[in-house]
Amino acid sequence: MHAHKFNPHYFFMLEFLPIYNKGFKMKEAQRHKVKLSTLTFSGVGTIVGSGWLFGSANAAAFAGPAAIFSWILGALMVLIIALNLIEISSNAPVRMGSMGYYLRYTHGSFASFIAEWAILIGFISSVPSEATASTQYLSDWNFEWTHSLFNHTTLTITPMGLIVASFLCIVYFLINYYSLSFLAKSIKAITIFKLIVPIISIIVFLAIGFDSSNFHAVGNHTLAPYGYSEVLTAITSAGVVYAFNGFQTPITFAAEAENPKRDIPLAILGAIGICTVIYVLLQFSYIAAVPHNELINNGGWNKLNFSSPFAALAIALNMNFIAICLYADAFVSPSGAGIIYSSTAARVICGLASHMPKAFSKLDTRTGLPRVALFVVLLLSFVSLWLLPSWEELAAVISVGYVLSYATVPVCTSSFRKIAPVAHKDAIRIKGMSIIAPLGFIFATYMLYWSCWPLNGEVIAVVLIGLPLYFYYAYKNGEKIFHEIGKCMWIITYLIAIAIFGYIGSTNFGGHGFLANGWDHVILAIVAIIFFIWGRAVSYKTPYYMAEIENREVSSVG
User: Is the pTM above the cut of 0.70?
Assistant: First the structure.
């Protein structure tokens, strides 16, 4: 297979670079040098999807006004993971797949399969989540048929809503299946619109609807009426982690960046910083602008029932123009993200080609697109949608899938430093990584725990169910399965341990209370460090490392 057919830059260049307004040409993309501003813009444009449309309302339902801290803590944790990813991405070539692919270089194909399978669950569920977001906002349109799309009692979309959301999934599929080029003509305007709408909404909500009494109106009249444990739960269960996914986009431009060692870190940190400010201000404006009487009469933040939170809020405050913009953005932002996730999930499947049916990774000979994989993504999107007909449920599952994959990144980063203590000339070395890496692993472990039992256990079970698929194809390919298992037992045991910990943990996080709140976090941090040390200890220069990194460096020197 030709390397350019697997190049993920193809998709992201189409999605974010305005230089392709007259059509995409691979050779032109390879010659073009991407500026820092464009790299940052790509990260911000990917992060801002449907998460902002529902995240503030969901986080407030969990934590009340203290949800503001959920966004700040979530951003900090994502930032720590991002620092690890920045370093590791500079040590390894960009390949089709996901961040889980990096484990192939340090722990082998089995460990990599588990990480990629976990994030594949997240990506596939992301496709229907974006369609569900648009459908849920559509249900508040002033047409009789749209009112039947969402059930306000069960907080799920109805059978008719499922049909509409399924249709949107098909639209995402068709755009990916035939061509993405027409999006390049308008992507800059779309991305600007995606940013302008939330920014204007913040300004208007604070100017017209600000009510400071909302910040202490419910429960014990503090910022955290439901307890500070709910601040932590909201990070994964309310869609905070979900909202930040996409921070890694600038890494895909590493080969085209003007100054990768300077620009890639600045772009990622800048994108996270900009989006953190936007998300925190959105949360603040939502809490301040909810009509006080409605908050009290409904019985608190967790009793509010907005199917389209910000649009409904705009209507309640007689801001009809803002409501129209929000309804429009409810299609623009989720649709752009849905197309991205459909394409990315297909490419993750291609990254798992050696442990999947060969047909799944087949590329169209004319376009180079993974059309069979796109079909698979569409079918699995339908399954996710009809099993979980709720944006909140899908966002929670997606977040756990992402975090499971994030957890492997710090171990991989530390392992690269172990097996290659002398960095090559293009590598980025971040100061303090000996502290940042284990801290990132602890944070990822905490986020899995905060997802609450039984959700964390259920998603982990789905990840482990994928193992027979690996064993079948590993045996078929003649791989050294027992050697791979030895290098992978740390991650398998880690997943099982997290599921058990979720079961016996504090009742504040859905557990059965065998561990008291407070001590559970101390013990979990110790457990995380043990697994981090174990994972680093068993790392080695795999055949993939020797072929794709070490031999590449030798060739470049020669």
Answer: yes
